[in-house]
Amino acid sequence: MPPADSPAADSPAAGSPAAGSPAAGSPAAEADPVVRAFPTPIFRHLWPDSGDLNAGLRELVLARRAATPSASRSNVGGWQSSHDLMTWGGPHVARLGRYINEAFGAAMEAQIGTRAFTCRLAVTAWANVNLDGDYNRHHTHANNHWSGVYYVDLGAPDPAVVPNGAIEFLDPRPAVGVYDLPGVPGYSTWTLQPQPGEMLLFPAWLRHGVLPFRGRGTRVSLAFNLRVADLKLQR
Ligand SMILES: [Fe+2]
């Protein structure tokens, strides 16, 4: 796993520059007269064959929940663990750590293409358990570069409630609301309804929250922060 302050990536990132971003001067770039100046990436990874992983993580989290009181942060109701999840040990936490490292590598590739790099990656993670009616207020993750969440168990949401327990991202452009043209997209939110085995990775400054979960069972997710240090890009 890539615990706190472990080497993250010391080999060339694989793949090619992100689709939809042709090199300046290319025919495709010249054909598109629109510059989208401040896009905000939200990476989605659906890890395959996650049934055993999710069962193991769920058992681990619920055992912690039974033994320790909740931390009090963004949660309204529900339970949050301490931020030391990456030290809980075992094969499931190790696999989660590998997934986080891979997601970080994909985010770097989207930014710098195939350039090689080295860095240290500090990872902190914690668990969230929401029951019927629980939610998380809007917040950011200060003093980090990337944040993310991995979905272990979505419980048994009431299908009549949509969206239900979804994560909601707020438009990061505070000035976009200075005018409103009916029918023209303006200030917005971006709501994602996750599924078990899915991981999201997004800039830590991007304000977000979790909409109320309505239903039965336990909704278990694992949140994490990434802080990059000593980043060296090769020419
Ligand atoms: Fe968060």
Largest sheet: 7 strands, antiparallel
* Radius of gyration, whole Å: 19 Å
Number of separate structural domains: 1
> For the residues shown, what is the average pLDDT?
88
Number of helices: 3
Given helix and strand content, the structural type is alpha+beta
According to CATH, what is the topology? Jelly Rolls
Query: How many β-strands, per DSSP?
Result: 12
- Please tell me what the overall shape is: globular
Contiguous low-pLDDT stretches (5 residues minimum) are: 1-22
Give me the CATH architecture, please. Answer: Sandwich
Q: State the name of the first-level CATH class.
A: Mainly Beta
Q: Name the CATH superfamily classification.
A: q2cbj1_9rhob like domain
Description:
By secondary structure, this protein is α+β, with helices and mostly antiparallel strands. The protein has a single domain, classed as q2cbj1_9rhob like domain (Jelly Rolls). It has three helices and twelve strands, in the order βαβαββαββββββββ. The protein has helices spanning 27-31, 51-67, 91-112; strands spanning 6-7, 43-46, 75-76, 79-80, 117-130, 135-139, 146-157, 167-170, 189-192, 198-203, 208-210, 215-233. The strands form two sheets. Strands 1, 2, 4, 5, 7, 10 and 12 form a seven-stranded antiparallel sheet that branches. Strands 3-6-11-8-9 form a five-stranded antiparallel sheet, with no helix packed on it. α2 (51-67) packs across α3 (91-112). The chain starts with 5 loop residues before the first strand and ends with a strand. The protein binds fe (ii) ion (FE2). The site of fe (ii) ion has 5 residues, from loops.
